[in-house]
């Protein structure tokens, strides 16, 4: 899904991804955030607990998909542009976005017909760069899935994964919890050497009056409301990708994963109020 410097970033569906323009080499990253202690880490459920819950809920979703004729689709939890695609602003705070693009031809062919997408490459006044994408499902729940399923297939090794809470105006309780992944990938340089790419990926899911970083919780809400309320949630999946400097000194501005997360948090604090429905 991702090729940096020698290619493009992609947000994947199952087999195809959303492309990102390659990043340039901006000046060094700053450590400044909007306020102190803007990010806190949290431990989620254990792997065993998640596996059990996902297995149970996965069976429930399959059962309800085959037996329940869901008549209603909820409103999306994210704002929409006039063309029905997810709204993704081109200017917010210190961040300026590039051209907004949507699903590629391959994605439009492979994903359910009513799937919508928006993405931009953003750059801050400090020279930091990141990629943000939104995928919005329609009636078909297969439009949305976890990036953990597709990043490894594109050569990314997920080193670790955990949730982090970001102080965000407009989020429930003033805090948005995202799933963070630290990942690495090797790619060949033109001179024959191999460069090591490091990046952080942060994502979360948004439904009508629901926000979660957990795939299992999204599945639970989907299954429960299909059965109890005859309603299918129109989920949005929001992904942010921040590259780090590679060992040639190129690519991103962040030198450590925590630096990259600070950049992501700064962007989220600015963009979140522009994304969600009030």
Low-confidence sequence ranges: 1-37
Q: Radius of gyration in whole Å, from Cα?
A: 18 Å
Based on secondary structure, the structural category is: alpha+beta
β-sheet strand percentage: 25-35%
User: How many separate structural domains?
Assistant: 1
Please explain how this structure is put together.
This protein has helices at 47-67, 105-110, 215-228, 257-275, and strands at residues 9-12, 17-20, 39-42, 72-73, 91-92, 95-97, 116-124, 129-136, 157-167, 175-188, 194-207, 210-212, 231-232, 236-243. With 278 residues, the protein is an alpha+beta fold. The chain has one domain (9-275). The strands form three sheets. Strands 3, 5, 6, 7, 8, 9, 10, 11, 12 and 14 form a ten-stranded antiparallel sheet that branches. Strands 1-2 form a two-stranded antiparallel ribbon. A two-stranded parallel sheet has the order 4-13. A hairpin with a 4-residue loop joins strand 1 (9-12) and strand 2 (17-20). The radius of gyration is 18 Å and the shape is globular. It starts with 8 loop residues before the first strand and ends with a helix. Residues 1-37 have low confidence and may be disordered.
């Amino acid at each position: 899904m991702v090729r940096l410097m020698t290619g493009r970033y992609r947000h994947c569906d199952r087999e195809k991804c959303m492309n990102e323009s390659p990043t340039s080499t901006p000046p060094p990253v700053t450590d400044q955030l909007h306020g102190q202690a803007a990010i806190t880490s949290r431990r989620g459920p254990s792997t065993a607990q998640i596996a059990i819950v996902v297995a149970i809920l996965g069976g429930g979703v399959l059962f309800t998909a085959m037996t329940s004729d869901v008549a209603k689709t909820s409103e999306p939890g994210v704002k929409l542009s006039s063309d029905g695609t997810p709204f993704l602003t081109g200017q917010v705070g210190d961040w300026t976005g590039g051209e907004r693009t949507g699903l590629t031809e391959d994605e439009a062919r492979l994903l359910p017909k009513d799937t919508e997408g928006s993405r931009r490459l953003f750059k801050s006044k400090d020279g930091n760069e990141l990629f943000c994408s939104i995928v919005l499902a329609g009636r078909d729940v297969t439009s949305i899935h976890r990036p953990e399923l597709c990043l490894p297939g594109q050569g990314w090794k997920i080193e670790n994964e955990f949730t982090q809470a970001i102080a965000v105006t407009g989020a429930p309780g003033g805090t948005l919890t995202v799933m963070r992944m630290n990942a690495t990938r090797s790619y060949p340089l033109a001179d024959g050497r191999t460069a090591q790419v490091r990046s952080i990926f942060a994502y979360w899911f948004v439904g009508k009056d629901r926000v979660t970083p957990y795939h299992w919780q999204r599945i639970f809400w989907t299954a429960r409301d299909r059965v109890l309320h005859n309603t299918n949630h129109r989920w949005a999946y929001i992904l942010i990708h921040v590259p780090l400097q590679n060992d040639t000194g190129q690519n991103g501005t962040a030198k450590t994963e925590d630096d990259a997360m600070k950049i992501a948090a700064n962007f989220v604090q600015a963009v979140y109020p522009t994304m969600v429905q009030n």
